[in-house]
Design a protein that fits this description.
mainly beta; four-stranded antiparallel β-sheet; 0% helix
Length: 202
Amino acid sequence: LWRVATGECLRLFEGHLGLVSSVAFSPDGTQVVTASLDETAKIWRTHAGDTLRTLRGHGDEVCSAVFSPDGSLVLTASVDRTARVWSAATGEVLSTLSGHGDDVCSAVFSPDGAQALTASDDTTARLWRLGTGECLRVFAGHGGVVTSAMFSPDGWQVITASRDHTAKLWCAATGECMSTLEGHEDQVSSAVFAPDLVVALE
């Protein structure tokens, strides 16, 4: 943990047995969740740096972990081809999202916290209903690994980035590809929404 204004290191979060693949704050900033190649995710207290819970259950490396908008859930993505939803309070697995044919690179919550969006090495992204674990939509059309998938702020659109050198904009309600953003000369590692803009990073 770093102080932005000075560059001072405030805290070390130590305890994983493998590389840490992602870090995210809880919405209120009091907790941090980390994902690791040691097949676990961990929830920490931000100011103390101690581990509150270790999320065990994935069968391979954990690529990403994020909190839900209200901070009550954690969503993880794994090389074991699944995403999992956990209780942030207890560390219990609430549901497993299965259906991808290859590694799941990333997973995020919808703005309202009711759905999840996953990106996979199988060249697709998928939309899931959290309450049931049902796959609602498959976003298929990329010619390479989908490296990330994100919701628009209103939840009505999805943007995906891919190793096929493009990003794609989709309708979340129908799964229809609305446009393909071309021009990069190498893989697109991530794409995000900004007010009135889409930003794609090579």
